[in-house]
Amino acid sequence: MKGFVNSIFIATSLLVITSTSAQQFSLDVKDLNDLALLTKQVEQVNEYAGLPTLGEVSELPGQGYTIHSPFTAQQVRFLQPVGTKLNIGGSFVELSGPEVHHYFNQYQVKKSLFELTELQYKKNKSLFKQSSISQQAWLDINNAYFAAKLEYDEMQHFFELVADFNDETETLTLKTPINGVVHYTRFESLTEGNVIARVIPTQSIRLNFNISNNEAQNLAYLSATNSQCKLNIYAIELVATGLASKVWSAPLTSDCPYNLGQNLSVTPFFKQQAYLVPKQSVFSMNGSQFVFVKSGEQLNAINVTLISSTEHSYAITSQQSLINSNVLISSVSAAQGILLGLGSE
């Protein structure tokens, strides 16, 4: 019968605490007899670490430089491993075969033809202004010049990427147009129109991860794997996927030497005033969390909200100020039991 009465008392206490969880419940220190009552001062912070999540090193969409092949090549030999970072002008691939040789000869012919028509165009331009040649003759010169220019320009854009051509081996070497990471397309044979490679600008290589929509507004920066790698936030996508949004970091730094496609642990940090308390100081009662704050000879149970956790601490908020407060970190369960009447007869 005595046990039944105690059970009813405990249940009633829980209901009272739940219904008035924002209020304060107190214990006299003497009620804990000779139990050790160690405390620690609450740490106030303006930012806190969120839970680690999975991040990926990838490129910002739409910023890569794509190189297409204007011809068929019998042999393709990449000079660097995929993912190699190259400075502008660095050679990365050799293309060989008779079609390559033929295309190079075409380029030389079109270049010579353009130079001739350009010279003719410049010489006759002043003559036309002086009415020394007929309008029809000038029109024919214009047509020949611009036709040759269009054909030459079409090939010239590709040959701006050519570092060298070996006539004996029929081999053409390409160089990178920008500073970046070279990513090769996998193919069995290279034909006209195929993508040879993509060069991803160094500045567009970022860390990205997903974050819950309700946390996104307070996001400040991120840390990855090692604590020295800290990156600001570049953008948070406004189109959410379910309950999460994708976050992009600022460009990688020397402290974040990660490779494209790499997956790693990312810790988001949030700007929000909060308190840090040891994990052992927090206790639960019927779904709510509390800490005991020592004030003189009393322990006051204060309702708190957990917003994040690290290995040893919780980041919390509270409707009551905890600045310069000391929370109980030992005999917490015993104090909780006495608060609920478990120590009474």
Describe the structure.
The protein has 345 residues and is of the alpha+beta class. The chain has four helices and 22 strands. The strands form four sheets. It has a six-stranded antiparallel barrel with strand order 4-13-16-15-14-17. Strands 5-12-11-7 form a four-stranded antiparallel β-sheet, with no helix packed on it. Strands 6-8-10-9 form a four-stranded antiparallel β-sheet. Strand 18 and strand 19 (288-295) form a beta hairpin. Helix 2 packs antiparallel against helix 3. It starts with a helix and ends in a 6-residue tail after the last helix. The model is unreliable at 1-23 (pLDDT under 50).
Task: Specify the number of helices.
Answer: 4
Helicity, as a percent range:
10-25%
What average pLDDT do the residues reach?
Answer: 88
Low-confidence stretches: 1-23
Strand content: 35-45%
Radius of gyration: 36 Å
Separation, N- and C-terminal Cα atoms: 12 Å
**Count of DSSP strands:** 22
Strand order of the largest sheet: 4-13-16-15-14-17
State the shape. elongated
Structural class: alpha+beta
What kind of sheet is the major sheet? 6 strands, antiparallel, barrel
Order of helices and strands: HEEEEEEEEHHEEEEEEEEEEEEEEH
List the main descriptive attributes of the protein structure presented here:
disordered N terminus, 24% helix, 6-stranded antiparallel barrel, alpha+beta
